[in-house]
Each structure stands twice: as structure tokens, then as C-alpha cells.
């Protein structure tokens, strides 16, 4: 699977570990930065990954900042991106099964590296259930289309 990954300075070390882990499991990793531990602005890096997902250059994305929240807010501005911060294995699994989440946002400050590893593994293996959830995801897509076309009335 082609996975785009990025972080701000707070998530840098976790991103580096995850990128290596994903590569060791045979995934193609597109590392969009940061490559420094100096302070950077998370929206810049969230946008890089979100563009890759929106353009279908990557199948999934992983974003890491202090809480994961700012990354999710930014990533969700891009068409076709469904991003959310997940805090445990249950939210990671449900985000895939029910919401077809394509960008996982993680907290570098509140999650242990081992917990993140388990969550990412489960998130990557979990398939979208479809069924009634397809109808709901399609409604999200329709709202997004109306907003981006200027016809949201």
C-alpha cells in the first residue's frame, strides 16, 4: 500500500519510527516531512499528505502532531479526504469499518509508541464494511461536492 506520512516537530520522532516500521512491512512510504525537530506549523504538513490522498497519489495517510486534532482539521479541507484523530484500537478500527477513513491522525503527546503501532496495524488491515455505511459516506461526498462547487444551499 502507498502511504503518505507527515508530522510537525512534536510528532517527528514517532513519524520516523512509523515510516521505518511501515517500510519493513512492505508498504511504500511517502515521507512528506518534517525532517527537523525545530518548531514548524502543522497545517503545512497536513496539506502535503491531504493533497496526496485527494489526488489519489497515495491510498492512505498518517498525520502526527501533539494531539492529532489540528492535522485532522486541516486535512479535511481537501476533497475526498476523511481524516480523524484516533485514540485507541477501537476508534481506529471503527474509523475504517464505518467511515472509510483514509487519513489517520495521531497524538505524539498522549499515545505510547507501542499503542500507535498496534493502532496503525489494525487501521491498515481493517476494510470498509460498506452497506449502510456506504450511503453515509456518499452523503459526506455529496455535501463536499456541493460546497466545492459553490452550490451549498
Description:
- There is one protein chain.
- The protein is an alpha/beta fold.
- It has a single domain, classed as Sugar-phosphate isomerase, RpiB/LacA/LacB (Ribose 5-phosphate Isomerase B, Chain: A, 3-Layer(aba) Sandwich), CATH 3.40.1400.10.
- 49% of the residues lie in helices and 16% in strands.
- It has six helices and five strands.
- A five-stranded parallel beta sheet has the order 2-1-3-5-4, with helices on both faces.
- α2 (42-54) crosses α3 (69-75).
- It is globular, with a radius of gyration of 15 Å.
- The N and C termini lie far apart (38 Å).
Give a short synopsis of this structure.
The protein has 153 residues and is an alpha/beta fold. The chain is 49% helix and 16% strand.
Helix and strand arrangement:
Elements: E1 2-7, H1 12-24, E2 28-31, H2 42-54, E3 60-65, H3 69-75, E4 83-85, H4 89-99, E5 103-107, H5 113-125, H6 132-149
Parallel strand pairs: 1-2, 1-3, 3-5, 4-5
Helix pairs in contact: 2-3, 4-5
